[in-house]
Design a protein that fits this description.
The chain is of the alpha+beta class and about 425 residues long. The protein contains ten helices and eight strands. Helix 1 (about 1-10) runs antiparallel to helix 5 (about 255-295), helix 6 packs across helix 9 and helix 9 crosses helix 10 (about 410-420).
Length: about 425
Amino acid sequence: MQSKFLWVAVAVGVAVSAYAGLDGSYVLPVDHEAIQYSKLPSSDAVSRLQTRLAEKRTTLEYHPDFGYLPSVLKQLGVPVSSQVLVFSRTSFQASRISPKNPRALYFNDELAVGYVRGGDVLELAAADPRLGVVFYTLDQENTVAPAFKRQDSCLQCHASGSTLGVPGLVVRSVYPDRTGMPIFHAGSFVTDHRSKLEQRWGGWYVTGTHGEQRHLGNRIFRDAADAKAPDAEGLNRKTLDGLIDSGLWLEPHSDIVALMVLEHQTRMQNLITRVGWEVRMALHQAEALNKALGEPPGTMSDTLMKRINNLAEELVRHMLFTDEAPLTGPVAGTSRFAEEYLSVGPRDRRGRSLREFDLKRRLFRYPCSPLVYSAAYRNLPPVVLEHVRRRLAQVLSGQDESPAFARLSTDDRTAIREILTDTKVLARQ
């Protein structure tokens, strides 16, 4: 019996081999039997809207200046206030993007919509509960039957080490030249809530105040050394006056708070997808071996369970912002984004929400990712959810006081536990 379990452990190790971390890790096979990314139909928000369009239960209205953008945002529940503007040429519509004509991104918890003024298509990326992020385009030509087209070719850029090896999104900070092209020898940063502000938003416009903290937004560079030179014009901007004609976009903002939320969500969603895919692949292979060895269905080796628990642990630590780069001063946006972001989502019996902002020391008042309520999280394999819930209960009750969670105060732990319990993420004790 021991030798059979050893065989299972060694074989499954191919799918769940240990490495130092998931950042920059190898790309998982999109058409593995347990995944079938290209073969299975999607069930994300965009595909659901396409079904309603095909069944003539709704329509998209065409705007003379913005095409289908306003109607798409309305139908998908994406707030206009989430607009952020990126002028680096890092999109497949790069030829139309420049510092004077930035690409606009709009997002909610489930998806992101990209718009380039004068572009041929809208770009959409939606989180499917099982597949990960699925990509679409919508032609910006006025037609009687507008239709979203799935674009798996986007995986050429959107399934890489930068997205944790699965179909996902990434916020990249570059050193753009005067045309918006990244200065490649200067390097770049993939940014999320772990990143120092001084590395963020190169090639993006940023409106909002942040005190003496520096970032790379609103600037043109000759090389990376330029980043060290003082540039007060790029910092603490409340408007984009002098940079673009902001009246040509739906909003005159590229809100710093929206950028911070987008960064958090990209890696959090990618991590949910990565953990889900890797565990499903491992369980699929384990079941095949169980059948071959005559073992009962569901038998899992200690090695496999350890790897699953390690993946779930990484999810828990990111979810609880254990490695968040601290703010050294207050941050404030310029749009309605913060209040509109807070207005949705569940609250506990005391009216508290994970979507409440801190913006003095850190992003959220209660450091736990609001994506814990997402369909992608809820559809993780049960063995992962079980471990995550157990670990959350241990950490938030104070049972686990290990250094990894030392930044969570007693008050933080208590508040997060109560919110998660009242909103049905954790069971009531």
